[in-house]
Amino acid sequence: MSQEKKKRFYTVSEKADHTGRMPKFGEAMLIVLAVLALLVWLILFRNISAQIALSICLFLSCCFAGYLGFSWSRIEAMLMDGIRVGALAMIINLMIGMLIAAWCAAGVVPYLIDIGIQIIVPRFFLPMTCIACCILSVCCGSSWTTAGTVGLALFGIGTTMGIPAPMIVGPILTGAYFGDKLSPISESTNCAAAAAETDLMEHVHSMVFVIVPSTILACIIYGVLGWKYGGSSVDMSALTELSSALRANFWLNPLLLIPILVLGFCIFKKMGSIQALGIAIAVGIIFALTQGFSFTEICTALSGGLKLDTGVAAVDSMLGKGGLNSMTSVVTIIICGMPLGSVLRETKTLETIVYHFRGLISSPGNVVLSSTVTTTALCYLTGNSYGAYILTSAAFGSAYDDWKIHRKVLSRVCEMAVVVQCLAPWTSGGAYMSGLFGMTTLDYAPYYVWGYIVPIVTIICGYTGFGMFYDNSIRGGIRGWGKNRYVPDCEAFLRAASVRQAENSAT
């Protein structure tokens, strides 16, 4: 391949020397399969911690980069780039840990639990949990905040009712990620739209065609799963005892919704995540002082979680969540995982594989299928969704343009990375959710049905034409699109693909 072609086809960061060569397809496939196999084998079958497994894979990827001819200074730059990209996620994780602890001490979480107990319909607890989390996540635009507040409260209620803990996590995750995908103030939603070069509201409009039907179907399934736990066997006395303990130890009234409203307002005003969370923590501390906690007790809670001795073990356990220390495992996974993704990305290992298979695309349905599978695989390989957004959009953007598929369909496909992220224990989402609820990703994976339904519905849309939008402007702008107005020209696409393949073969 000529130097000109190399520079145009593969763009490498200018921060360090570019001594390394691009991997061949066979080399790229070998290292990717080795990394993925190691992660699965070490974590799932050998019960090795995700941090150690990621560290081993990181060492292997660095050796591979050295094999390609990259200097150590360049490899160091790759590692630091990965940590730099993950720094914001680490800070947000730590602040969410403090937010959970502050809101527990402030009485916000206890008040939400008490409300839930009063309005709960046992037979419909699981779908009601999903809907409640949907509402909050749309308002705040954060899946992690939703799961750590309302989700945590509903988790405590459900376990008290005798519902299996992993079964409760499924609808919580569904509701949390529902709003994260449809809220215009969600960071991941904005990033997906930006990566695919489409308008934000157009992206949200496209997401509705997949997310809403998938959520309705998931709620039906959750209703069936939870039906048997709502009969006469439900021990309502346990819930009554829980409510009494909360009211005895906290001052509970509607004013405790103010911290939630403040957080929602900050996000609505498009404040940065750190700024919004900082204000929400500060408001939580003020309310915690009104609950009778000393400043020292609050600071201790912000560090290691709230310590209570109410005489009711369920209350002490569910309110003892959060704090900086609770996020240690998540942060260390990010520290180990993000550099791994950076090395695979900067050595162009992932792009080599993606571009190799891109010429096999022969229909709009195959475009959607290929990009859905790719963004999911990239999410698991890089450990985060943002890298999957960027790489998938870069690899498949021209394919969507060739078929004149609107770029908002591409951005919708990119969002699949977030939907499935929490199913892998080595990703930041998987580490956070498993740590929050005190179980492995394998425990709640069978009940997170929404995470399987959404990708399937996305692919079905690609082949049936439902929710597919075509753009006559070639570049994926927002003009001239409409549902199925344009009939894709298969021959034109195949001619374009054959030209690209010929160019690649010649080089």
Blueprint (SSEs and pairs):
Blueprint: H1 3-9, H2 25-45, H3 50-67, H4 72-106, H5 108-119, H6 125-140, H7 143-160, H8 165-182, H9 187-195, H10 200-226, H11 236-249, H12 258-268, H13 273-290, H14 295-304, H15 313-318, H16 328-346, H17 349-358, H18 364-382, H19 385-402, H20 407-414, H21 416-421, H22 428-437, H23 441-444, H24 450-464, E1 469-471, E2 481-483, H25 490-506
Antiparallel strand pairs: 1-2
Helix pairs in contact: 2-3, 2-17, 3-16, 4-7, 4-13, 4-14, 4-16, 5-7, 5-11, 6-7, 6-8, 6-10, 7-8, 7-22, 8-10, 9-19, 9-20, 10-20, 10-24, 12-13, 16-22, 17-19, 18-19, 18-20, 18-24, 19-20
Descriptive account of the structure:
The protein has a domain at 86-328. Helix 18 packs antiparallel against helix 19 and helix 18 (364-382) packs parallel to helix 20 (407-414). A two-stranded antiparallel ribbon has the order 1-2. The chain is 72% helix and 1% strand. The chain contains 25 helices and 2 strands. The protein has helices spanning 3-9, 25-45, 50-67, 72-106, 108-119, 125-140, 143-160, 165-182, 187-195, 200-226, 236-249, 258-268, 273-290, 295-304, 313-318, 328-346, 349-358, 364-382, 385-402, 407-414, 416-421, 428-437, 441-444, 450-464, 490-506; strands spanning 469-471, 481-483. The model is unreliable at 1-17 and 473-494 (pLDDT under 50). The chain has 507 residues and is mainly α.
Percent helix range: over 70%
Class by helix and strand content? mainly alpha
Rg, please? 24 Å
Biggest sheet statistics: 2 strands, antiparallel
Distance between the termini: 4 Å
Number of helices in the DSSP assignment = 25
Reading the helices and strands in chain order gives: HHHHHHHHHHHHHHHHHHHHHHHHEEH
Name the average pLDDT: 79
The dominant shape is globular
**Total beta strands:** 2
Q: Proportion of β residues?
A: under 5%
| Adjacency order of strands in the biggest sheet | 1-2
Unreliable parts: 1-17, 473-494
